[in-house]
């Protein structure tokens, strides 16, 4: 047997409220351009709205004019979606708390996760949304996932509970040293 190799998230489809509430939230609050609209091909009573979350992939929303906003938390039973996280850059992240507060949207406040900062709030139907900002920039030609894997190895070797900034910094050094050639015989730390 051979495994199936995925290449990334194609799209995520959520059950939304009515059409206008969905557009107001996904485009009007989160800034995702509304790019495509058609009926739900499996349920003629629903619409199917498509939004670009910023990476050219898709977030799609099934809408129904009978569904109105409710602000209860969606179920978190096993098998349910706990939350969806979207990436924002540092400049935007520094504004998120004030922008949510100005709109009257309740939120968690900023959470420091070591490798990222997060803030949580609910969509119009109670789905928990996270806006996240990495605390590091990957070395050129590497990815956040590659740095996280390397930082995880360093964290485990150090016996640390969670990835800290020092693991991220040392992971970046390891990645650069593996990829970048040097004329020096010794790349070890030295005093200048």
Overview of this structure, please?
The chain has 192 residues and is α/β, with parallel strands linked by helices. The protein has helices at residues 19-29, 90-102, 144-158, 165-179; strands at residues 11-15, 34-40, 43-51, 58-63, 83-87, 111-112, 116-122, 128-134. The longest helix has 15 residues, at 144-158. It contains four helices and eight strands. The chain is elongated, with a radius of gyration of 21 Å. The model has no long low-confidence stretch (mean pLDDT 93).
Secondary structure layout:
Blueprint: E1 11-15, H1 19-29, E2 34-40, E3 43-51, E4 58-63, E5 83-87, H2 90-102, E6 111-112, E7 116-122, E8 128-134, H3 144-158, H4 165-179
Parallel strand pairs: 1-4, 5-8
Antiparallel strand pairs: 2-3, 3-4, 6-7, 7-8
Helix pairs in contact: 3-4
In short:
With 192 residues, this protein is α/β, with parallel strands linked by helices. It is 28% helix and 25% strand.
Overview features:
alpha/beta; four-stranded mixed sheet; 28% helix; 192 residues; 25% strand; 4 helices
Helix content: 25-40%
* Residue windows where pLDDT falls under 50 for at least 5 positions: none
Tally of separate helices = 4
* Order of SSEs: EHEEEEHEEEHH
Spatial separation of the terminal alpha carbons: 55 Å
Characterize the main sheet. Answer: 4 strands, mixed
What order do the strands of the largest sheet run in, or round the barrel if closed?
1-4-3-2
Rg (C-alpha, Å): 21 Å
Determine the mean pLDDT.
Answer: 93
Beta-strand portion reads 25-35%
Q: Decide which structural class fits the backbone.
A: alpha/beta
Give a count of the beta strands, DSSP E runs of length 2 or more.
8
- What is the overall shape? elongated
């Amino acid at each position: 047997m051979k495994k199936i190799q995925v290449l990334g998230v194609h799209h995520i489809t959520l059950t939304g409220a009515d059409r206008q509430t969905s557009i107001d939230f996904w485009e009007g609050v989160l800034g995702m351009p509304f790019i495509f609209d058609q009926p739900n091909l499996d349920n003629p009573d629903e619409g199917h709205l498509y939004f670009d979350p910023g990476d050219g992939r898709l977030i799609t929303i099934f809408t129904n004019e009978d569904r109105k906003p409710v602000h209860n938390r969606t179920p978190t039973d096993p098998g349910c979606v706990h939350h969806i996280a979207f990436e924002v850059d540092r400049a935007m992240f520094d504004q998120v708390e004030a922008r949510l507060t100005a709109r009257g949207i309740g939120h968690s406040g900023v959470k420091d996760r070591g490798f990222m900062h997060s803030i949580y709030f609910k969509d119009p139907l109670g789905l928990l949304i996270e806006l996240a900002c990495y605390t590091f920039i990957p070395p050129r030609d590497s990815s956040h996932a590659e740095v996280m894997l390397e930082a995880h190895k360093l964290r485990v070797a150090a016996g640390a509970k969670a990835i800290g900034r020092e693991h991220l910094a040392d992971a970046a050094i390891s990645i650069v040293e593996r990829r970048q050639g040097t004329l020096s015989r010794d790349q070890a730390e030295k005093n200048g």
